[in-house]
Amino acid sequence: MTLRIDAKNMHYTPLNQQIKAAVADGVKEIVLDNVLGQRFIADGLRGDDVRIVINGVPGGDLAMLMNGPTCIVHGNGEHAPGNTMNSGLLVIHGSAGDAVAHGMRGGKVYIRNNIGYRGGIHMKQYDLDARPVLVIGGTAHSFLGEYMAGGLVLVLGIGLEKSMTDRGIGSGIHGGEIIIRGEVEDHLLGVGAKKFEFTEADLERIKPEIEGFCARFGLDPTEFLDTNYTRIAPSSSRPFAGKYVWE
Amino acid sequence: MCGIIGVIDRTKSRMDGSCIKAALSLMNERGSGDGAGYVAYGIYPDYADCYALHVFFDNMEEPKEKVDEILQKQGTIVHQEEIPTTEQPGLKKVHIPWRYFFKPFKDQIGGSLGSEDDLVKDIVMEVNAGIKGALVFSSGKNMGVFKASGWPEDVANFFRIEEYEGYIWLAHNRYPTNTPGWWGGAHPFNLLDWSVVHNGEITSYGTNKRYVEGYGYKCTLLTDTEVVAYLFDLLGRKHGLSKERIVKALAPPFWDEIDRMPPAEEELNRAIRLTYGSALMNGPFAIVVASTDGIVGFTDRIKLRPLVVGETENRLYISSEEAAIRVIEPGIENIYTPRAGEPIIGRFNE
């Protein structure tokens, strides 16, 4: 059963109330047309078999605390899509603003094009099941993976000579990993971040993410299945252990 | 958190205020109903050679007499009237908005007396610092600021901004966080033809304020954004810096970035940073500034506030949110987010 909602000129409160009520009534697919700037869509929504399709440009904090559903955006995203997302899948067929996947703790966020500043800030993970994944098709601005504590950020740099040209990558990182297609210049690394060799074992590990991303956007994954990546991770097991300690 | 949007039509085709009102209102979530405002350029073609002074009066007696006296001493009041308003249920009219079209006497300017602009700047400072119950909140030519405490639609309807047509519009929806919400604290902030809308905070306000005060500017409006208008006037009008270079002074590259630049660029950036250290603005901000010849948008150096740019064949938009631009231009294709500290400049076609 599919529910279609024309969101034109609708405030986000009644819109999100309608979505929640529909999911509670057992609706499995909701298509939102003419979305423009409405915030908090799919926030806290539950149900692994629920699908939300957004036609337009949703407002900030899309899929915040989302727990299970698949949310697909045909348009660009605003600030912090995937904020503190718990599980499920968020796909954006466009670009997104700052703080994408902010504090994300599970599930996957796929952005076809570019993201703004501080993508993956404060991402975290608890165990193998709760391991968030953020994949960016294009590039990201500064402070990618800032204060990152867990999970994976993958930047493919599709169509770009260099995947990353902005500074502060992994600034304050103390867990998780940032994997970037091609070389990354040393001066782009943030405090506490270190480059590591990208191995065949790493490729095996991220292969499902590459394939998943490519499948969503109709791309051929084979061109990404090699070891031409840079892996960025914390410089030690506790890079900031001495930060707030005076001996 | 605040919402900002600006637009310039490069062909100087004029737009009425209805579109910008709709775009700003889409970002109501970014405000708290404590302040909203608009500025438009090209709205007073019949008085294009006069300074359009918009003043908030607390009453029409003593403050008005004092302002009249200052103006009549230094020039001619070509025309004056109350700014037309329509009462709104959601907006309390606590000041009387008034406008003068003013021409300074020729013998008051030139040589050591300074320019017309200097004279008008001094009048603005004198009124705002010295006359209780009067506040000049707009002082450029062929442009005007309209602002008050209230929500974007209420402020727009109160000032009937749909009746004005301009080729540049800026608009702002305020969410005051650490300074009072009052009519004078609403954006845009203006001096002469510089108008500023700002989302964020200028945490270096104290340093910047002391710096401009050394050049005769007086910060009287109880909030940080005011100083940005004075910095643009000082660096742009008095020192003759281009908008690109003003932004380089206010939101410069980091030293390690300057170290990596090619020699000529490095020398320029080093010189600007050393000369204008006291103009450097710290803190989170996204700002759009308008003047007679165009607009410029920029953010702080580490991009702590959002800014989105949209371009069509004839127009440049700068906004806090993409959706606000799409209210006016639903099918816009060229949308992007600028880099931190990167000046986005809209000029008129030659």
Which key phrases capture this entry?
heterodimer; A: 247 residues; alpha/beta; Pectate Lyase C-like; 2 domains; 11-stranded mixed sheet; 2 helices; 11 strands; 13% helix; 27% strand; globular; B: 350 residues; alpha+beta; Glutamine Phosphoribosylpyrophosphate, subunit 1, domain 1; 7-stranded antiparallel sheet; 5-stranded antiparallel sheet; 10 helices; 28% strand
Total count of strands of chain A? 11
Give me the strand/helix succession of chain A.
EHEEEEEEEEEHE
Based on Cα principal axes, name the global outline of chain B: globular
CATH fold call of the largest domain in chain A: Pectate Lyase C-like
Question: How big a fraction of the residues of chain A is strand?
Answer: 25-35%
Q: Helicity of chain A, in percent?
A: 10-25%
Radius of gyration of chain B: 19 Å
Summed up, what is this model?
The complex is a heterodimer of chains A (247) and B (350). By secondary structure, chain A is of the alpha/beta class. Helix content of chain A is 13%, strand content 27%.
